Amino acid sequence: HDSSKMGFLVKGKPLSWKESDKVREYVKKHGVEQFIHIWKKNKDREDLDFLWGDEVEGFLCQLTEKEGKKAIKLSLRGSEVLEKLKEAEKEETEKAEEKAGCGTCPPSVIFHPEYGCFMIETTPSAPYGGFVRDLRCVEANMRLRRAKVKEHLKTGEVYSTMTTYPLMGVDKFTLPPHDPNGPVAKSQYVPDQLINPHPRFATLTANIRTRRGSKVDIRVPMFKDKNTPPADTEIHMDAMAFGMGCCCLQTTFLARNLEEARSLYDHLAVLGPIMLALTAATPLYRGRVADTDVRWSVISQSVDDRTPEERGEVPEAKEKALKKSRYDSISLFIADAANAYFKDKYNDLNVKFDKEAFDRMRKEGLDEILAKHIAHLWIRDPLVIYQSRVELDDTKDVDHFENIQSTNWQSVRFKPPPNSDIGWRVEFRTMEVQLTDFENAAFTVFIALVSRAILAFALNLYIPISKVDDNMHTAHKRDAVTSHKFHWRQDLGSTISQHMLKKNGGTTVTNPLKSTSGSNNGGLKASGFMRSIIEVKESEFRDDTLDNFCRVKADNRFVLVYGELDEKGESWCPGCSRALPIVEAKLKSFQSSTALLKLPVSMKLFKDNEKHPYRIQERLNIQSIPTLIRVGAKGIFDTPLASKWCTDTFCVNQYMAYSAAKRLRGGSTKALLKEDSKGNDSISETTIKKIMLGQGGSEPLGLIPIVHAYLDMIECDSETRKVVNGYLDLIADRASGKLMTAATWIRRYVELHPEYKKDSKLNEPLVHDLMNTLDRVTDGTLAAPQLLGEYSNFNKKQMEDRDGEVIKIKGAEKQLQLKINVKCSPLHREAS
């Protein structure tokens, strides 16, 4: 659900739906004005540092066992525990790195309230950075967060990162016990007392119900087992708590600028259903076994505030019908016109939008696509308005914008700068929270690396939005990873290679070009490797210059186009003055033969000259300077490094490190775009296994090999690579079906438990054992090879380091575990 803590937890009185009637339009109007101000202030903003973070949510439950009678309740101590954690936060800073076991970890963690007072959300106190070592900090920080929560738990109390409490809505399921049918939710299943006591949450719940005209109506298909009563076809739920009480895993990425944020938003939206299915972890609701594996639809229905007319239930008001809940997959791609991969036809849904808001933004200069995106959000009403926060300064405050923005809970969220030092961000929201810190770290690191690879390799993941919606529906199906197919683009339009060419150190370079920079720059030699720097002036550039350069025998070849230097060594292009030393320094670091073709341009001939030879030359296609181009095998010119990145040492090093590479498929990026323009988008249904692992040959490379290629490109250190390889192996085995998703594992556990009567129903002893087992798996004291393989099982030495011991599975629990092994995962060793 919402990473911005369900909106602003402001002190003050929130207005009821009736009380807000007079100010809702005012809030909507001024929310648009606030966004316009944000856009004007930040549209040209650049953030060179890559920052990112994660959010992990969990809940508390109390396990008891007296005289052989097992019981479990949902603990409503979340707010109490949160207060204790807040008090301890100030003392954590110096201890965090030592306890996490990673000297580069963020110094602390932060805990946040969530919708339910049984929930606790955790985040690192500082974002991770753009260094590979930060990838090793994620799991350590997650372990630290869990350990801190557990310090404040009572005996028998468990903090679980399971997606939902299986017995929510069954009898008196809370501790302390409370009756349902309260005045806020009016639910026949859940009490109001489980809602976070901050007035925002109760107001949000009541206002959704009031606007809708009835209680929310959540329906999930029930799993039909051998003894399931024929009349039991659905699991019914009637309160926001069933959805917003679900826990999830979310990641947020800082983009360099507005353009990058919009592109990343689109591509992550395509990945949303794939990652939802791959992280599936929610087969149980309200004491029943569902015939679905993920939470998304339940949350969507739990906050569906559409009126009967908007839900399409009134035939004479069809024009008011809205296809989706305010919690759903996105309905629009938002890439700007500069994105060569985006096509209007991909936005193939009939999207409604607020015309007044759209016209206002267009008048102020916003492009049509971005204006329509915001105007589409504005078809929703503000749900929680604080009495004291109505008349605000639109140039300083963002409350009215965030009021609507933060309650459009979509699969990906485009997050403008909030009038602070934070830039344009994208939040990825579909992943299901996993049972262990290892799994949560694996998926967090994976999506972070995929986001970098998308940008670094200029991947093209676009498919029509309607097919993204189809994929969302498929992701809900039982065993979607192994039993169903997803729409996926077969031509990713990338210039990545399937493997790095072997370095050929000490190669003698024969220079077929005239070097105008003298012998010192024409062929530098260091550590036995040849460096060839060749400069060709504009007047000396010929039709065969590039062909001749491609024949240079070097392992690494690059072309740099930049503004010519004056007598003082300064370029008329400031960015070029900064880029030159960065490129040349990286050139000297190569431990293999390297060639650089320098193409300086004069201001007089280049600036504003659309017919300059370097602009119209197909392989160069220079739009701005400086531009750095890697020349791969067979003289193929790869996607250039954009000018804005050529002044960034980290980006230049990343780009140049990926040297002498072959393309995945023949032809240039331009050729691929020309092929696309003919309508050949090469979209077909395929398995998640192929999406993740690829198939070789003419098939597209899988996302996991692409991530490996990216790690090669950035020269990831061996220690970090070992950790990340474990994460990628886990995900690969989940995608291939060698390992179960959490949903499948939990489903198998229930099926094999002696308390389960094959009737799709759960009871307290069964759920007690399930939660106890999951807690032990999380701690590493119980092996779960069908779920985790051997990727995160603690070995004996690691257990001793944690002041623990290796606990073997015994008795009935061992038999249960071995049944699961034999029945469902014969490829993996038995737990012991």
Explain how this protein is built.
- The strands form six sheets. Strands 1, 2, 3, 4, 5, 6, 9, 14 and 15 form a nine-stranded mixed beta sheet that branches.
- The protein is built from 28 helices and 22 strands.
- Helix 2 (78-100) packs across helix 3 and helix 11 crosses helix 22 (703-713).
- Strand 17 and strand 18 form a beta hairpin.
- The model is unreliable at 1-7, 103-107, 495-529, 659-679 and 795-832 (pLDDT under 50).
- The protein has 832 residues and is α+β, with helices and mostly antiparallel strands.
- It is globular, with a radius of gyration of 28 Å.
Largest sheet: 9 strands, mixed
Q: What's the N-to-C terminus distance?
A: 38 Å
How large a portion of the residues is in β-strands, by DSSP E? 5-15%
Helix content: 25-40%
The low-pLDDT segments are 1-7, 103-107, 495-529, 659-679, 795-832
Which structural traits does this protein have?
single chain; 832 residues; alpha+beta; 9-stranded mixed beta sheet; 5-stranded mixed beta sheet; 28 helices; 36% helix
